[in-house]
Amino acid sequence: MARYRMRIRTDWPADEAFAYLADLSNFSDWDPGIASSVQVGGDGPGVGAEYDVDASGSVLHYVVDVHDPPHRVRAHARNRWLTSVDTIGVSKDGAGSVVTYDADLRLHGILRIGDPILAVIFRRIGDRAADGLRQRLHGSRVR
To answer: For residues 45, 46, 49 and 55, what is the CA-based torsion angle, rounded to 10 degrees?
Structure first.
């Protein structure tokens, strides 16, 4: 299992930060590892919304299973090789907010022996995504 968690403090109000991040079609705006993210099911963000996310030439089909504005959204994708669960939390912080992005990537079957290598690679990918999100939200990283 590979997991990446980041927190960004921003001046964006919680409802605006949530609205932006809950629309997974915005992934490619801030994550340099995402070539495109297109909503293919549902009518806007919400439970049941579906997105095809092209991550480094591999398209993952995400389905939103939790949508609790302006606090939390969770989406998952599963294929033969892996399961990805991305959870975004937003909490009010004065006039701004703190965004928490938690990504969990699990390999299936015999591929699980590659988990230690995946964890190292996922850390690098996550660091680039965190930097992109920090820049997009004009925020600062919170440890």
So the answer is: 60
Contact between 73 and 88 under an 8 Å Cβ cutoff? The reply is yes
The answer to whether the beta carbons of residues 27 and 21 sit under 8 Å apart is: no
Instruction: Please tell me the distance from the alpha carbon of residue 2 to that of residue 127, in angstroms, as a whole number.
Output: 13
**Cα separations (Å) of 85 from 37, 92, 105, 120, 128?**
16, 23, 7, 18, 18
Q: Whole-prediction pTM value?
A: 0.89
Q: What are the pLDDT digits (tens) for 93-115? A: 999 999 999 999 887 776 666 66
Q: How far apart are CA 35 and CA 60, in angstroms?
A: 12
Write down the pLDDT at residue 118.
57
